[in-house]
Design a protein that fits this description.
The chain is of the alpha+beta class. 30% of the residues lie in helices and 25% in strands. The protein has a domain of 273 residues: Distorted Sandwich (Beta-galactosidase, Chain A, domain 5). It is globular.
Length: 756
């Protein structure tokens, strides 16, 4: 664990700058607006170690796959987000020398991400040639004006004599991805122009051999400043505007940079891009910088009104949950059904910026509770619109139906690890569960009976073909899979995979009887087919150990070296200096060990909490939790919910802290390459479903809350079926208040109450 920011309920703030922590700082101060985002790198030149990253929603590139060529059906390419054309950089010179905090003497450093307003601030006093200049920077990507990036710099002369200041503002296509093969670049310049105070550059992603779309983007910048425009540059890979002036002692001058970003996702031609960019730049020009900032703050206030969680008595926990929600909403807020949530969002290049099953399993429940239902519905539509790609993935393996991808931009699998790509197939059921979860929570059956039924049926067809019947056991089995626990590859009968496939087949068989005759005909469903799904579900093999009273993660798992002491801890406990094991052990050693990467058996138990007895939940938690190293960012929240359900309050709080502050405290020593965005769902899940015990059963909202011992209480807002509720949980009582909408009946600690 490493904490480099101060504790503050609304801010991620530090007054220290350590070059060795630069990448950590950049990750944690990332900003975004669903349309685009960036890491918290400095605007000005920095010659030390840094990861300058800007990313655009839905813009990706099919990089060639380097491994797995001999495996039939292997993905042809590895999809990734290219580091976007750099529109952030400025070069600031004092008396002819560039500011560079890797080399310069400076003081009074402050870096602050204001989560309430969605603004990143930075200030410092730099010494150059015997002169002191205070520099401040404020920047944001607007959630009220999605194409807009704005940056305001101020320079104050703290010296006794005038200083000359020069600012070069750039749009630069000479950028690289850190994860590119052999240093390839992904952008070519196709058009550019400059004027005295403005410039534009149009870039296009490199050609590819896979027939996937190329993307064209346009960045246009304009400037408002007290400085004089002196020179413009129009070079091969960049355009620049140059400004200069003299600052008198105690004088402050300002420099505003506004950038409009448009892409071929929304405009078909360069002419259309140009027109849209010009129109948007004019629109932005009608407002002052302060007005643009105010619009940003107001838009964030609307989001916080629906979703904020307040914690009384623990400011670290308070900061953690707001950081979770801020970064999650900065990545996705349902405004574009073509987009989804990458595990690193706009904060880094790891995982390629693609869509994983994380969205359906972990993120969708949060949006169901914090935003309009259309946000969650758009996440479902994203998968429906990619059904053709899922058909392709199944056909590649010689299977019927649809196999939704582990990793994708367009519905077609584009990961580069076979074990993940075509063994970790539980994601099919996770996507089906999201449809069920949406329907159960909202009460809206219009999706499941129409588009959703098509997805469910095609997934059921896949499972019916993927299983095999064991004559010896008289049961259906699923061999050669990887479960949620990726530290177990190519296993037989992963319990999580089998039990969720069983559930999906059963659920789809029920839905097939509810859809219209027209939909039945469209999907070509027969009674024989539905009967087969039901038969497979009824006869699915689910590994279980009666003696231990547990569901066995997969065949052979109990044959591993698993010895727990009287306190239920592994006898061969992993030394602290070998954690995380994925950074210290060989892959071979990990695969042979009994240690679990993340919730696997418990993941499915969380899905269907009320289907298991208290004893079943207790025995499985007590067995698996000591073996789980939580080296997936998605793990701790599920265990926190299960622990809360079992009244293991201390363990639940411990796991909440791990999930809510996973990146803020760098628990897994891997935040340097970006935040765990999809895991930002974990803090909300742990509080609302864990501590507050929120469930929806038979259309009824239910709570069984408790307050962690270190807290005085907590409040949260919840959207539910056209209503906005506020839940206030204190040590001695719980109050549920109706903020908007019609009255409803809620079950609180087993008793029904009327909320008006």
């Amino acid at each position: 664990m490493k904490r480099i920011f101060e504790i503050d309920p609304w801010k991620i703030v530090t007054h220290e700058f350590n070059p060795e922590d630069k990448r950590l700082q950049e990750s944690m101060t990332s900003i975004g607006n669903e349309y685009m985002g960036m890491r918290g790198m400095f605007e000005e030149n920095y010659s030390g170690d840094t990861h300058q990253g800007i990313y655009l929603g839905g813009v990706w590139y099919p990089d060639k796959t380097r491994v797995g060529w001999w495996k039939n059906g292997y993905p042809e390419y590895f999809g990734k987000v290219p580091n976007a054309i750099d529109f952030v950089s400025v070069d600031i010179k004092i008396n002819g020398e560039s500011i560079d905090l890797a080399k310069d003497s400076f003081s009074d450093f402050e870096l602050c991400l204001d989560m309430k307003r969605g603004v990143l601030d930075r200030s410092f006093i730099v010494e150059k040639d015997g002169h002191k200049i205070k520099v401040t920077s404020e920047r944001f990507v607007s959630i009220a004006f999605k194409e807009l990036y704005a940056n305001k710099l101020t320079f104050t002369n703290l010296s006794d004599e005038p200083v000359k200041i020069e600012v070069q503002s750039l749009i630069n296509a000479d950028v690289y991805n850190e994860d590119s093969n052999y240093g390839e670049q992904f952008w070519g310049v196709i058009d550019k122009s400059v004027a005295d105070k403005s410039g534009r550059l149009v870039g296009k992603t490199a050609e590819n051999n896979f027939g996937t779309p190329r993307f064209t983007v346009e960045m246009a910048m304009s400037h408002e400043t007290d400085l004089k425009a002196v020179r413009s540059e129009n070079e091969e890979k960049y355009v620049a505007n140059n400004f200069e002036g003299s600052i008198q002692p105690d004088q402050t001058v300002s420099f505003e940079k506004r950038v409009i970003v448009t892409t071929s996702r929304d405009y078909d031609t360069v002419d259309a891009l140009d027109k849209a960019t010009n129109d948007l730049m004019n629109k932005a020009g009608e407002q002052t910088y302060d007005q643009l900032v105010d619009a940003q703050a107001s838009a964030w206030a609307e989001r916080w009104e629906k979703s904020d969680i307040t914690i009384d008595g623990d400011e670290a926990a308070q900061q953690g949950i707001r950081f979770n929600l801020f970064q999650l909403f900065s990545t996705y807020y349902g405004n574009d059904a073509r987009l989804n949530i990458g595990p690193k969002g706009f904060t880094g290049e790891k995982y390629g910026g693609a869509t994983y099953w994380d969205t359906e399993a972990f993120c969708l429940p949060v949006y169901l509770g914090t935003s309009d239902p259309k946000v969650a519905r758009n996440l479902l539509l994203y998968r429906y619109n990619q059904l053709d790609g899922a058909h392709h993935n199944a056909q590649q393996q010689g299977l019927k139906g649809a196999l939704y991808p582990m990793v994708t931009f367009n519905g077609i699998e584009c990961h580069n690890e076979w074990e993940i790509t075509f063994e970790e197939i539980h994601r099919n059921s996770d996507i089906a569960y999201a449809i069920y979860n949406y329907t159960k929570t909202t009460g809206d059956k219009s999706y499941v009976l129409n588009e959703g039924s098509e997805v469910l049926v095609e997934i059921a067809r896949f499972w019916a073909d993927r299983v095999h019947y064991s004559e010896r056991n008289g049961q259906y089995m699923i061999h050669g899979v990887t479960g949620a626990d990726e530290y177990e590859n190519n296993v037989d009968n992963n319990w999580y995979t089998n039990v969720t496939a069983k559930w999906e087949l059963d659920y789809t068989a029920k839905i097939a009887k509810e859809i219209s005759d027209e939909q039945v005909k469209k999907l070509g469903i027969t009674d024989e087919e539905v009967s087969k799904w039901q038969e497979i579900a009824d006869k699915m093999y689910l590994p279980e150990d009666k003696e231990l009273g547990i569901f066995v993660q997969h065949d052979g798992f109990l044959d591993k070296d698993i010895t727990l002491d009287e306190n239920n801890n592994p006898i061969n406990k992993i030394p602290a200096d070998e954690l995380p094991i994925n950074q210290h052990w060989s892959w071979d050693k990990i695969l042979r060990s009994p240690y679990v990467k993340q919730a696997d058996v418990l993941q499915a138990m969380w899905y269907f909490m009320d289907d298991f007895t208290e004893e079943q939940k207790k025995r499985n938690f007590d067995f698996y939790e000591p073996l789980t190293v939580h080296e997936s960012s998605l793990s701790a929240s599920i265990y926190a919910i299960m622990a809360a359900d079992l009244k293991y309050e201390e363990k639940s709080v411990e796991l909440y802290e791990r999930t809510a502050r996973l990146d803020l405290d760098n628990y897994n020593n891997d935040t340097v390459d970006g935040l765990h965005i999809t895991a930002m769902s974990g803090g909300w899940l742990a509080i609302v479903e864990g501590f507050a015990g929120m469930r929806v059963n038979d259309g009824e909202l239910q709570f069984k809350p408790f307050v962690p011992k270190a807290w005085n209480g907590y409040n949260f807002r919840l959207t539910f079926r056209g209503r906005l509720l506020e839940v206030k949980v204190a040590k001695d009582n719980t109050e549920i208040k109706l903020i908007k909408g019609e009255p409803l009946t809620v079950k609180l600690n087993g008793e029904e109450i009327e909320v008006k």
